Amino acid sequence: MNIVQEIGQTADWDADQVKVITAEYDARIIVESGPGTGKTAVACARLAHLIEEEDIEPSNTWMISFTRTAVAEIRARLHSYVGDNSFGIRIATVDSHAWSIHSGHDPNASLTGSYEKNIERVIELLKADEDVAHELSQIEHVVIDEAQDLVGKRADLVEALLKRLPEDCGVTVFTDEAQAIYGFSDDRVGHLQTSVGNIGQPLLIRLKSVRELEFTLLALKEIHRTSSPGLRRIFSEVRKDVLGIQKRKEGFHDEIAQKICDFADESGLKWMQMKVADFSSDDLLLFRTRSEVLMASQFCDIPHRLRLSGYGGTLPSWLALCFYDYSDAFLDEAMFYELWSERVETKATPEYGPAEAWWRLLRVAGKNDGSVEMSKLRRRLSQKRPPIDLTTQEYGLFGPIVGTIHASKGREAQNVVLLLPTGAEFENAEEEAEETRVLFVGATRAKTSLMVGEGTVSRSASLSSGRAYGWTRNGKTMLEIGRDGDIAPRGLVGSNELSASEAAKAQNFLAGVSDVVTTYSLQVDPELDWRYRIVADSGETCAGAMERSVGYDLWDLLKKRNQGNSHRPPGRLSYVRGHGCSTMVLAPDDSEASTLHEPWASSGFLLTPRIAAYPSFYFKRRS
């Protein structure tokens, strides 16, 4: 029984899928694959077929994906197809592959340089470095996912990579031009970050026009994701309309929106008459802007999850619960089970048990003798993007998911509530076309049912730091709290911020709320250089201190309003939501460890409140 038949016992492949899966190992194909056509399953089955039937070495295959979330799904699916052979496949995002090349072949490689400079250096290495050429000469097949979103520097990089691969190296590219939404930021409607003309040709146009690459076009047409008649019409009929909008001049956004409403299972809903608590963990609530997501989350008291740029997966609290005082060099299975039993089972409810948790630790930092090397674990978990094996998929606690369309791209849910912005206006046809594709992407995240409603009117903008802010009808300001960098280890257990007893009390408090929604207030402390302390709602416990970034942005906002000389930031921000806790990890050689209290300075593991809030307040007039 071949791999297609074996996998087909749990998935019935259609003729188009089989054609892609079983194409020659050295074929170069572009696969048009609309939503619901089984693209991810086919991509993984393609690699499985090459490994099992064409005898290609797993380590000689690459999978390039657009997001870390997609990488996690692909890795899990490939393991179900080819078992431990999947560990040899290099599955990573474009940026991760680029960094692998850069760090492996340039002794001066640094993460501190600009993104553009780092990518330019990798392209130079691809074009001229013989060691890179030798490494790439071993590659036998490359699969590229979500190619329609590869533009600008990333497209330059992938094009250079493909031109440097051996002639007999196969390439399978999956794409859907109806879902190309690379131009917009996710927090504004109708405002392109940059025009398509300024980012060069998208990768797909290049692949189709460069003769030396010799790509053949294939397509996946049959819809497998859903049996809903309305969703099937959106996936097929509306998709054709979206693909044809470039031939139109204007007016197509409202037309596509109306068709989505007509084909949805329910429409005409208004968000002002709903709330997050009305929904279950099978539901995905999609808004167009980040401020709408923050607003919906701010007024929800039940556990829920966020899909929002800047709020990716976090390290689960069980890591800090187990290891906050663990300073041994190695960890064996028996000790881990003992720590889990004593510390995790009474305080947290992870999505998996100790056996799965131990397997994940081994994947990240396991040794040949079956133990975990703690220094390696700390180094890997302290990275800006820690291994997917030990990160949560969403930001928050188990429950309904609230997110932007952009952050949910490539993801699915049983039931989707799509909340459309009202009164969107566009400066030109290019913006309208892009926004129409955004609308289509949102509508096609559903597997079982789609409900369409009207979102709130968004009175919001963002500061130069990227932090969102908004304003209410009664003159209050709302500010995003919880961005990456708002809380640092020194603010949680630092010797300058808290006494040893205060740090211990704070971490004990966080251990008790590691899996529940908590409300804090932020209170200015003049003795802490006017930074905000994170105070539990009862007022009895200080859980830590925010970094100066919050105060700086408040002053920046005052300057934008020309009120820097007449007003000052509030002394208190109330109703700051904490969605349980996550783990922060310091590398063994991190200099910040010397500023922390023990045992965290030695262990490198500590709890941090998982804050995502949009509190409202008045600026105070100076006396």
Short description:
Strands 7-15-14-8-13-9-12 form a seven-stranded mixed β-sheet, with helices on both faces.
How is this structure best described in words?
The protein has 623 residues and is of the alpha/beta class. 35% of the residues lie in helices and 20% in strands. It contains 21 helices and 26 strands. Strand 4, helix 8 and strand 5 form a beta-alpha-beta unit. Helix 10 runs antiparallel to helix 11. It starts with a helix and ends with a strand. About 1% of the residues have low confidence.
Question: How many strands appear in the DSSP assignment?
Answer: 26
Outline the low-pLDDT stretches. 190-197
Could you tell me the mean pLDDT? 91
| Count, helices | 21
Intertermini distance: 82 Å
Q: What class, by secondary structure content?
A: alpha/beta
Shape: globular
Helix-residue proportion: 25-40%
Q: Order of strands across the biggest sheet?
A: 7-15-14-8-13-9-12
Specify Rg, calculated over alpha carbons. 25 Å
Biggest beta-sheet profile: 7 strands, mixed
Bin the strand percentage.
15-25%
Q: Would you spell out the secondary-structure blueprint of this structure?
A:
Blueprint: H1 3-8, H2 15-21, E1 28-33, H3 39-52, E2 61-65, H4 68-82, E3 90-93, H5 94-105, H6 115-128, H7 130-136, E4 141-144, H8 152-164, E5 170-175, H9 203-209, E6 216-220, H10 229-243, H11 252-263, E7 266-270, E8 283-287, H12 290-298, E9 305-307, H13 317-323, E10 330-331, H14 333-344, H15 354-365, E11 372-373, H16 374-381, E12 395-396, E13 401-404, E14 413-420, H17 429-443, E15 446-454, E16 460-462, E17 468-471, E18 477-479, H18 489-493, H19 500-512, E19 517-525, E20 531-536, E21 542-545, H20 549-560, E22 567-568, E23 572-585, H21 600-603, E24 605-611, E25 616-617, E26 620-621
Parallel strand pairs: 1-5, 1-6, 2-3, 2-4, 4-5, 7-15, 8-13, 8-14, 9-13, 14-15
Antiparallel strand pairs: 9-12, 10-11, 16-17, 17-18, 18-25, 19-20, 19-23, 20-21, 22-26, 23-24
Helix pairs in contact: 2-3, 3-4, 5-6, 6-8, 10-11, 10-17, 11-17, 13-14
